[in-house]
Amino acid sequence: MNKQGTKNSLNLSDNERRDVIKYLEAGKPLPEKYRFLLFKDDREVELLWNGKTNEVTNVVLPFQVIEQIDEPREGKEFGDGGTLFDTSGKQITGWTNKLIWGDNKLILSSLKNGPMRKEIEAQGGLKLIYIDPPFDVGADFSMDIEIGDAEKESFTKKPSVIEEIAYRDTWGKGADSFIAMIYERIKLMHDLLAEDGSIYVHCDWRVNSYMRLVLNEIFGEKNFQNEIVWQRFGAHNDGKKYGVVTDTIFYYSKSTSKLYNQQTEPYTEEYIKERFTMQDADGRRFYPNVITGKGAGPARIFKGVSRLPSKGRHWTYTQKGIDELEKQNRIYYSKEGTPYLKQYLDEYPGRPVQNLWADIFMTKSGPELLGYPTQKPEGLLARIIKTSTNEGDLIADFFCGSGTALAVAEKLNRKWIGTDLGKFGVHTSRKRMIGVQRELKKNEKDFRAFEILNVGKYERESFLETNDDLRAEEKARQAERKEQEFISLILSAYKAEPVESFLNVVGKKRDRLVAIGPINLPISQKFIQEIVAEMKEKNLTKVDVLGFDYEMGLVFDDFITEGIDIAFQIIPREVFDKRAVERGHVNFYDVAYIDVKPIVTGRGNMKELAIELTDFSVFYNQDNGGIDEELKAGRSKVIIENGQVLKVAKDKDTQEVAREVLTKKWSDWIDYWAIDYDFADRKEIIKVFENDEEKEVWTGDYIFDNEWQSFRTKKNRNLELTSAPKELPKGDYKVAIKVVDIFGNDTTKVIDVKI
Prior knowledge:
Shape: globular
CATH superfamily of the largest domain: Vaccinia Virus protein VP39
Largest sheet: 11 strands, mixed
CATH class of the largest domain: Alpha Beta
């Protein structure tokens, strides 16, 4: 036995040996540090954190196509003779750009391991990834929302529960949880990149030290290309320390065979005056550049005179090259007779871009600004995309936010994939990309259609995080306890009592049963179908479905089947406020209600169909709890109370509180609406693996073809309430109407129309 603290044949101290034995006897995995002590590893430095694992998820979930958006192109020739576009200019085949809503870990795993990988490889692979992940900033999922037609009134949309949970999982344990989150995702991204692909990771002072180590470990230090310092502002006054005016962008390649296009920036007038000091007789500016290099060499003939280079130098041109330069008048002679090469200003596109980017500032105004808190300027993304891709290449942004990378990619004729956890982020990107399509169409430039997808159908998972150090049995028991606590909380807030003997139903309120969706995932079509099937099996007719969020594109009318009275409710954020629950201040609200009127005109076999949006209602609450007491005198705040947006103001002198309704009419709640005039014409087909074979399966759903839309922007607050007419032949049609409210929540209604 070795003395305490000495090393044995296993290179462990006695304390370390006892530690290993303890873990082995408990059936727990060894901490990462023992990998270095027990097993050879060629890496000299590695980033370690609590709970580190080299494993990444390999889950494969199908991608559910919610809608396809393509502004038809008119009056021009289309692409490749009809294989990409139909006669109206609508894209019918080829790569369709993808905007995906959901957890990017599940999305990345499904892209890496699922059928869409083949589609990506067929495009030449993923050439560029740009990501701008959250940096421990609580406002990442908050946005300023305008109200109706008004330009002066707005309120701050709070994060959804799913967004809050994602943020908690990212930063709830400090740096450890952030590193764990980003490490797994970047490992998946590394696998997805083409061999000549690159990744740019945008971060700031909060996380750049961690991010560099993560990237070094995954990509290898040899593939580190640059630390780019971006000057976001000209100046920033902190008062207590130096103002922070920069972000960091780390640039790594997949391999040494990276794609790289040198970018330049225009010369400043000061630089031109300082650098290009000479002029030819014709006015061309140039600077005299030396034509010698290190290392001795022989003499050359200049204007009939033999000249030796300086000691230890050689002429960089052969005699033939010098003679040719003389003929072109490209040799300049100093007063001393020393020859130089004339480097003309008009032959240079500009100065090569260096790693300090001080020529692109944050956008503070104009149509580009969307009010998104982490939005980056298009010029920044244009430089990155031009550097590391060519036209027709595929890029991706897995934290796409307001869609800046996607918009720039489209304008530069690149293909793209964008993903975001925030439903409002996806909605903001949708509007932005439609705007880009319209702009390119106006300028007679080509563009591609894009799809909006969910990753799912979501499978039910553990509601809350469990302790990884526990044995499997105890982890399962802990997950079950936490799930029951969550269900009890929701039932209490909903004033319902628990019931048993059901698979999906968990409660009862008067004569109606209650089902509750997961805390960290949207309610899926699959979940609702399971509830309906169980109700039919047990000959029950009334059920309320409660959820924090619903998958995009759910057609709620589809589930109101004969004999089943099913109501869909939104769980408010206030449910986690113990005081609000105790006081009965938690208000659940119905999924939005839509009313429309079809307008059919014309005679003969072809008629025109237009849709008038006649009513829309929601019932939200936000920031209304105790506002009268909390509001300071002389101040005001915009809140949402019982389905109305109110401006609450407290008089400076009298302390009286006044309420002004800002949502003057029902249309003020609408941010966007769209129509598919023939909803049942395109089935949703997904690719799945069965017995290691790929097959296509109809999901039972249809894809929403976004054929007409009207929406508000910061620049244009107008909203059309009657669609443009669509010419259709006689027949029976299912027309789908999609409405997105000012919170980014979408509701779809399907009506039957006879032409």
